[in-house]
Amino acid sequence: MHPFSQCPPEALRGLRGILTDIDDTLTAEGQIDPEALQALQDLSDQGLPVIAITGRPAGWSEPFALTWPVAAIVAENGSVMLRREPGAQGQVLRRDFSQDEATRAANFARLQACAADVLRRVPGARLATDSAGRLTDIAVDHSEFAHLSAEQIDAVCAVMREHGLVATVSSIHINGWIGEHSKWSAAHWAVQTVLGQAFVPEQWVYVGDSTNDQTMFARMPLSVGVANISRFVPQLEYLPCYVTQAERGQGFAELARAMLAARA
Fold it and tell me: Which of 237, 218, 227, 222 is nearest to 13 (CA)?
């Protein structure tokens, strides 16, 4: 994991766009950093699309998909894609799912049973405050409004896996879902659907900050962690190629400026 200042401009010059996490990569305490928002606009103005892939729920993500200058937001770790499209009275929100309705309905009952079991078996566990907006997963808060120790986080993950869920840990939540979708599948899905082209990993950079970004760090030829990733380094099996000097949204803006400068 090298300082991002050492990333050669030629590695950035030919990139097609950016794939990025949201929480603590674009935001701090749920609010987007002003520098990150300006960076999104600057990238959009130069024809460099940004696709955000997050563990946050569809309900939480919808207003940002409508107002941020991003090509799409894929929420719930690859399950729900949100994007703007022209409507009769301006831009409207389109919502697509990676699973059909029958599968989602069957999974929902299993997810709620798992959530109840987690709360029963792990003292101190509580569902994330954004749970009402979740359509295809569950989330337990470990650092947003509650605090769980490493041992409690491991216990939550263990219960989720007992129920057949995929379990990952973001900077704020423990997410659990049923299915093969992931941030990696979300990248393929979103690029193909939104841009009408195959996803070529060498043409994109991924930006993240925590353990649930490891799938992308492991597979993307070029990946960047914002500086606050240092909190999770001891738990990471796969590290990003580079790390920014700045944290959170300011670190994202650091990458955006370098990409734009490389293309100038």
Answer: 222
- The model's pTM is 0.93
229-240, pLDDT tens digit by residue? 999 999 999 999
Going by the DSSP 8-state scheme, the letter that residue 237 receives in this structure is: S
Q: How far is CA 124 from the centre of its chain?
A: 26
HEC assignment per residue over 163-197: CCCEEEECCCEEEEECCCCCHHHHHHHHHHHHHCC
Cβ distance 167 to 176 under 8 Å? yes
Length of the chain: 264
14: which 2 tokens? Answer: 């030919």
Structure tokens of 74? 């894929």
Residue 88 CA, distance from chain mean position: 31
* CA pair distance 255, 249, nearest whole angstrom: 10
pLDDT in tens, 239-264: 999 999 999 999 999 999 999 999 98
